[in-house]
Amino acid sequence: MVRRIIPGETYSLEDGLGVRTIEADGRSNTEALGLAAPFASQPVVEQAIRGRASRYADLEARSFAAVRRIERDGSSLRAVSDAPTGVRLSHLLAHLESTGEVVPESAMLELSSLIINIIASLHAWPGGLAHGALSPAHVVITNDGRVVLTDCVFGAALEVLQRNREQLWKEFGLAMPAAANLPRFDQQSDVTQMGALVLAIVLQRPLHAAEYPRGVSDLVLAATDASMTSRPGTSSALRMWLQEALQIHPRLAFRSAVEAQRSFSDISSVPGSRRTGAMALQVLLQTTCAEPLNQRPVVVTQQPQASPEQAPRAPNPPADAPTPFDSILRAVFPRNDPN
What we know:
12 helices; globular; single chain
């Protein structure tokens, strides 16, 4: 079971960025990230973070955790961001690995689609926007069936650090495409990182340090073994998609998440699969948190306070009460009233 983070308790996501604390002001929750020394000690890195935060301030708040402020206190640097309510993908994958729980194919495809769609929406913005730090720790599956990406302002700063591909994987858990020079944190890098996210979801466990980049081809073959899928042709199509996303063969690679999104829709677009996948995700999160989805406490944030406009939730809803995932199900499959 995923352990809750208590407000005020410091914790790390093992992503190399620093130490985090959940802060609550009675109305909303924020996550204060005390940045690690390589980010806090170099003015040029701080400038890159502030520039990215300013440039990305208008992103859709329901899909990208907004950075509220960057704070400098002597030698310390903090990034304070909105804290989405839900389960981090890194915690979910660790849970699956430790318990051996098997996730239905429909849930894997649905979760992958949600992630791909959000990254594609970012890449569709004018100006060549990129996330730059896509890892399981920075993907939150929310209580209402959405996916929110966090930590989207560090790509430019990571590029300034001038780490090579192997260092970026070992220090920050970031998959990067092969390059003759130091990696660029652009849309092409986002695609590779997105491919690693989907590969981990299909494998139903985190990717280990020794498995990337040299072992990634074998991982893709193992993940797309024909025995792991229920529909004819899914294995080969998914294998080709992962190879292009991870840019195993540079000449056959997606240039952006928009291209990857179109290709993945051919894999996941089966009648009824979206509804089935959403319901399977609901069950998965219930199991992960060992509590009813519409009652469970927040996994990485404090239990949210009810806003003045909202009536407080009943402590014991009836068994047939709608779950938070009903919103996504209604959006995808509107009810057809007989009248």
